[in-house]
Amino acid sequence: MPSLNELSCIEIVQGIAAGTFTAEAVTRDCLERIMARDQTVHAFATVDPEHALAQARALDRGPHRGALQGVPIGVKDVIDTVDLPTEMGSPIYKGNRAACDAACVAVARAAGAVILGKTVTAEFAGMFPGATTNPHNPAHTPGGSSSGSAAAVADLMVPAAFGTQTGGSVLRPAAYCGVVGYKPTFNLINRSGIKFAAESLDTVGVITRTIDDAELVTAAVIGKEPARLTMSSAPRIGLCRTPLWDTAQPETKHAVEDAATRLAAAGAAVREIALPEEFTRLFEASRETINNYERSKSMAGDWASNGERISKVLGDRIKLGMAMRHEDYLAALRLAEDCRAKIEHAFEGLDCMISPCVKGEAPLGLNPTGDPAFQQFWTVLYGPSMSLPTHRGPRGLPVGLQVVARRYDDDRLFACARWIMAKLGLV
């Protein structure tokens, strides 16, 4: 039998229910893995081993609480926890304690999860990285800003972790670390208790090692049963290269085109999707206008009180946002709304689309954390997206494939993702 930290969320729930092992035993194995590996990976900002074990013992001694019974979960350090500090990756918030859990944490805890620790985030979920390294090669970035969450899951420290995505902060680290990253439809998971970066973009997401685990955790925190849909027939898949295709590195182009070829051979109806001209302006509108403008407002108090303690890269973004004309911000919002309407038409007759997720393998070094372009393109469109660990690049590092679905069609996204992984021979 493998060490308990290697099990999936579903295997943990089933094993505890059957009496095969306890929540305390699972938590202890996860903590031992953290002790063995985190001096290299640096995935966790805060871990309180005794408190984690106390949570697990309480679960073992009490009545069954819910769908996540005994599952250890990491929480990105911009998401509030009542029993652990929320430090935002910034010295400004050192030792900061919230009065209550964020909504996603509170519901997960009520469903029986063990809140194992706070995972490292880039400063204020932005661009200035923390100390986390890529578990596959510590010389490379794990991505950002949910770097600790992805690295902890990939390195078998925890089976699931919460992240947040403004541009690409769930899918990019998941792709670089070779795990499943799921960004739900915008606002599907309640955002109360997170530190906003850009309030019209920020989305709470989930990082796991399996598709089924991502669905289990998400279903638990939004109050539904997992749909566990599968495709009764081969799906209709759109191949959307996006207007950013020419910026992709060879390994990403190969991942997308190889997947399209193999999925078509397995029976999928695959067709190319060309998007209207206005989509060429979407990334710049999202990253350079909406993101900067909204971040400058959400961080106005931090900037006024502690601007000298904010990194230059983030400070420059805040200053750009503060100098921006409101009319330009509104124009970017209108462009985003127009593209959201048009993407619905592009999805007609399709079950999902596949698209590049990252430009290529994780870059060498920890700063910068990689380009968010391919993820941010879909984030601003508000539909659900998922990074699947399907390919490797020339250095042997993971390269994810992005699968996207229309807004509110998250259950179908899971079904398509399962089919894709099965037909690529990865499950």
Quickly list its features.
3 domains; 14 helices; 427 residues
How would you summarize this macromolecular structure in one to three sentences?
By secondary structure, the protein is of the alpha/beta class.
Helices and strands in order, then pairings?
Layout: H1 9-18, H2 23-41, E1 44-47, H3 49-61, E2 72-76, H4 103-110, E3 114-119, H5 147-154, E4 160-165, H6 171-177, E5 180-183, E6 203-208, H7 211-222, E7 236-239, H8 250-265, E8 269-272, H9 282-298, H10 300-306, H11 312-323, H12 326-346, E9 352-356, H13 373-379, E10 385-392, E11 398-404, H14 410-423
Parallel strand pairs: 2-3, 2-4, 7-8, 7-9
Antiparallel strand pairs: 1-3, 4-6, 5-6, 5-10, 9-11, 10-11
Helix pairs in contact: 2-3, 4-7, 9-11, 9-12, 9-13
What best-fitting shape do the alpha-carbon axes yield? Answer: globular
For the sheet with most strands, the description reads:
11 strands, mixed
Approximately how much beta-strand content do the residues carry? Answer: 5-15%
CATH architecture of the largest domain: Alpha-Beta Complex
Unreliable spans: none
Name the average pLDDT. Answer: 98
Write down the CATH topology of the largest domain: Amidase signature (AS) enzymes
CATH homologous superfamily title of the largest domain: Amidase signature (AS) domain
Fraction of residues in helix: 40-55%
Helical run tally: 14
